[in-house]
């Protein structure tokens, strides 16, 4: 999730743009840059690393420029580097763009532009926009931007400036945020309100397909065909802290509501609407995938749960045996590894000490290693033979949420690619599951929308009933077992309530003794071949007087009679249901912790990244 900032006004733009970028640091970044429209033409500065590096590179000399753009980059296409940092330029250097989002058809556009004589200076998807605008520069910047948008697929927002029209900024959005700030004799444009909230509270939020032309005097709006549009100016009431959280009360809640975007970004350019998977970027070819005899997953905490969930799908769909272990155990046992065992190290931060040590051990034993991480350039990416990125954006809340669902989505992409390479799944079934996966971002959005403004329509109601409980038991089977482990971990780490999670069939071998009259038992019971088995487990706990809170698929007519509360999720194929079923469990933990008044973003005793042994 990159950050865009633009300014056109009566004051020198450099300090205002740098301040705006500083305010967007929470969006995360690995490099940054800015372009200032000076008399001699666009003056660009880019820097790898944190914003201080850019500020240092930009220097203290005041620039007279009153128009400019800035950008903080969260790499998705092209590793973090100065060349890949934004702004990107056209061949003449007169057009500059900054972009947030993903251009899914950039490879085809790049080939076409190179054939037309354009030369590229970065590995990014975004640079194609600058060259497409160059193709239509004679029509003027607004028209060139509109023509460019017609060529793009994906979800993006971008702003462009041109030396031919140095007083204006043209911006547009398509399924990525862009907002205009209305000042006195000056205008602002940015990915998020915090960038200019200290300057103005008067804003215009662009709709998808809007194209805005901004100069010091104001803004004009059109659609991508050039038809003029009227857009309302509204007043923001948030304070700076709330603004950083996008209007949510905490980063964790913001990140729970960012899951549809995290999923869409992680699937973008890798999964077509028809269900075809392309993971060529991963660096593991079909031959290598066919040679595999075994997969061994190593990870910690929430990442381990994502691996466990995927392990069921890998075995079922790709017919490759999977072993999985927590990294802190794996590294001190004597795992039997060989060149035909692919070790998958999962770590959202890419810096967790135990997982890094496990990866090193695997490599020393001659096993190929695939790292699944959310952070480009993280240590795990340097230690692995192949890398697959989730694209969840920076996660600030210590309790992982959006990175978890993105991990499961990425691992299911891997599973479908593996099944395809090994021919273990009929094409129509593989494509059907691919289409179900492609639809998950929409279903998660629907699930979140159903929660109602303050969550009262959904999970919060249940949280209010059980927030005083002193113990919870979570049960699940198959992939649902991984989901219940994750749900229980969320409750433990932010509400501090003792919680057990068990494979439902294992419960009668001991933990059932923990149950009392009214004990809350959360059961992950979404539609799947093991649902009938779960019904008998539910009857076992009800026989001990426990209260059942079931996570179930819409349309299930049986579960309501068996439960005190049902947390409904959209129905889906069992292999993708885990990304839906975990959401109400994240919210249950969240609302219980909030009702108890705990700081969910920074729980006690926990760090976001565990770099100690
Ligand atoms: C999850 O909410 C916790 N923050 C923790 O269990 C975390 O998943 C674990 O430390 C692994 O972190 P990683 O994915 O960055 O390696």
Which ions, cofactors or small ligands are bound in this entry? 2-deoxy-2-amino glucitol-6-phosphate
Main pleated-sheet profile: 8 strands, antiparallel
Unreliable segments of 5+ consecutive residues: none
Global Rg:
25 Å
Structural class: alpha/beta
What does this structure look like?
This protein is α/β, with parallel strands linked by helices and 613 residues long. Helices cover 35% and strands 23% of the residues. An eight-stranded antiparallel sheet has the order 3-2-4-1-10-9-11-15, with helices on one face. The longest helix has 21 residues, at 402-422. The radius of gyration is 25 Å and the shape is globular. The protein starts with a strand and ends in an 18-residue tail after the last helix. The chain binds 2-deoxy-2-amino glucitol-6-phosphate. 2-deoxy-2-amino glucitol-6-phosphate is lined by residues 300-303, 347-349, 352, 355, 398-400, 493, 609-610.
């Amino acid at each position: 999730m990159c950050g865009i900032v633009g300014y056109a006004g009566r004051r020198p733009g450099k300090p205002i743009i740098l301040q705006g970028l500083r305010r967007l640091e929470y969006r995360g970044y690995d490099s940054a840059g800015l372009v200032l429209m000076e008399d001699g033409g666009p003056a660009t500065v880019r820097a790898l690393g944190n914003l201080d590096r850019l500020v240092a590179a930009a220097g203290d000399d005041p620039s007279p420029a009153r128009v400019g753009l800035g950008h903080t980059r969260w790499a998705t296409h092209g590793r973090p580097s100065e060349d890949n940092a934004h702004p990107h330029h056209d061949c003449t250097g007169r057009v500059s763009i900054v972009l947030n989002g993903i251009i899914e058809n950039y490879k085809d556009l790049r080939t076409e532009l190179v054939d037309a004589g354009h030369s590229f200076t970065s590995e990014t998807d975004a640079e194609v926009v600058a060259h497409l605008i160059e193709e239509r520069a004679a029509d003027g910047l607004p028209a060139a931007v509109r023509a460019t948008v017609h060529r793009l697929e994906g979800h993006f927002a971008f702003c462009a400036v041109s030396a031919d029209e140095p007083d204006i900024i043209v911006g547009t959005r398509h399924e990525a945020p862009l907002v205009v700030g209305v000042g006195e004799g000056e205008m602002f444009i940015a990915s998020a309100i915090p960038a200019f909230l200290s300057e103005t509270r008067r804003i215009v939020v662009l709709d998808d397909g809007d194209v805005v032309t901004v100069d010091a005097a104001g803004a004009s709006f059109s659609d991508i065909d050039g038809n003029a549009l009227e857009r309302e100016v509204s007043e923001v009431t948030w304070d700076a802290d709330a603004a950083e959280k996008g209007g949510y009360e905490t980063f964790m809640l913001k990140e729970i509501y960012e899951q549809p975007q995290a999923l869409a970004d992680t699937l973008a350019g890798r999964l077509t609407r028809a269900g075809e998977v392309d993971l060529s970027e991963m660096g593991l070819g079909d031959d290598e995938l066919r040679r595999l005899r075994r997969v061994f997953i190593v990870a910690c905490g929430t990442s381990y749960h994502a691996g466990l969930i995927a392990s069921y799908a890998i075995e079922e769909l790709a017919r490759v045996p999977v072993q999985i272990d927590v990294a802190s155990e794996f590294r001190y046992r004597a795992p039997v590894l060989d060149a035909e065992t692919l070790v998958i190290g999962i770590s959202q931060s890419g810096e967790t000490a135990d997982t890094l040590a496990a990866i090193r051990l695997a490599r020393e034993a001659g096993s190929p290693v695939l790292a699944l991480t959310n952070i480009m350039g993280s240590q795990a990416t340097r230690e692995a033979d192949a890398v697959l990125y989730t694209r969840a954006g920076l996660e600030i809340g210590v309790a992982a949420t959006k990175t978890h669902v993105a991990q499961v989505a990425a691992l299911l992409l891997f599973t479908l690619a593996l099944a395809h390479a090994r021919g273990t799944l009929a094409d129509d079934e593989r494509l059907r599951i691919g289409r179900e996966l492609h639809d998950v971002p929409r279903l998660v959005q629907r699930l979140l929308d159903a929660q109602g403004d303050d969550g009262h329509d959904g999970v919060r109601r249940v949280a209010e009933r059980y927030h005083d409980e002193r113990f919870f038991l979570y049960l699940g089977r198959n992939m649902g077992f991984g989901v219940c482990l994750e749900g229980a971990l969320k409750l433990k780490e932010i509400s501090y309530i003792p919680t057990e999670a068990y494979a439902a069939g294992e419960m009668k071998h001991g933990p059932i003794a923990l149950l009392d009259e009214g004990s809350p038992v959360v059961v992950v019971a979404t539609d799947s071949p093991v649902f009938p088995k779960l019904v008998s487990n539910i009857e076992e706990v009800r026989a001990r007087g426990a209260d059942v809170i079931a996570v179930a698929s819409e349309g299930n007519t049986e579960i309501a009679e068996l439960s005190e509360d049902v947390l409904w999720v959209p129905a889906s194929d069992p292999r993708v249901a885990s990304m839906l079923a975990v959401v109400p469990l994240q919210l249950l933990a969240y609302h219980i912790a909030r009702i108890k008044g705990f700081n969910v973003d920074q729980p006690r005793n926990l760090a976001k990244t565990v770099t100690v042994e």
